[in-house]
């Protein structure tokens, strides 16, 4: 169970605590429950040069949500809920947008429909949850996870880096949703609940929908040569330099893949490699080994020569041709 240790801590507001005149986050004294079996499901334990760029995951909270109350009454705090958003017009946030505002175009249909969209019924809401806690000079630089909450209790998460981080924000979300707010209406105190059943809320049916990862090899790759090699080996691939600056390989892992899901591997000239669409650590490692075997076994065939090397090769060919002409082996 999630427990809060408040011994020797004096609360000075709902989110922060003070001890010896120092700021102490509420979350520092929380015991986080392991909803996701982190030890067995963690995906960022990979070969040293692979890093996870992002994950998309989903789960269910085992109870229905009140989207209207979440939008109006779920408190923002720099240690947990940073943003509550229905759309751009209906949003509360602590994050300062540093991008320059975009001017509306004269025939912008989105601008015309603004008033209409405000009256639409929404069955989902986005909550941006900070992973860590404590003082930070810039919330934009803090790790955070976007959580799309649906009325039926489903949750979709993006911007994830690890199962551990997902488990942290799910703990925060459940604690925040269990809070009961109240408002005086017509002289009566009316409770504002975020969830239908406080006792039933839990994490069910957690799954990883997509993992994107990347790494780099220490060779410069001739994409045309690589693509021709893949065609000869009848490996499913594509290369359209006018559209994308990479060769794309479609690979189907044999293990842990009942749906025969394809993984996309993007290979760039400078040796940057992106693996996208994986759903498990095994998918990433299998794709990593697959492409590395191709690159290692055919390195001499696909390596891109630098300008000096190509120039030397051309001059050598030229010298051979002139020599053959001089000794009569080649007629012009």
UniProtKB/TrEMBL annotation:
<dbReference type="GO" id="GO:0003677">
    <property type="term" value="F:DNA binding"/>
</dbReference>
<keyword id="KW-0238">DNA-binding</keyword>
<keyword id="KW-0804">Transcription</keyword>
<dbReference type="InterPro" id="IPR000814">
    <property type="entry name" value="TBP"/>
</dbReference>
<protein>
    <recommendedName>
        <fullName>TATA-box binding protein</fullName>
    </recommendedName>
</protein>
<dbReference type="GO" id="GO:0006352">
    <property type="term" value="P:DNA-templated transcription initiation"/>
</dbReference>
<dbReference type="Pfam" id="PF00352">
    <property type="entry name" value="TBP"/>
</dbReference>
<comment type="similarity">
    <text>Belongs to the TBP family.</text>
</comment>
<dbReference type="InterPro" id="IPR012295">
    <property type="entry name" value="TBP_dom_sf"/>
</dbReference>
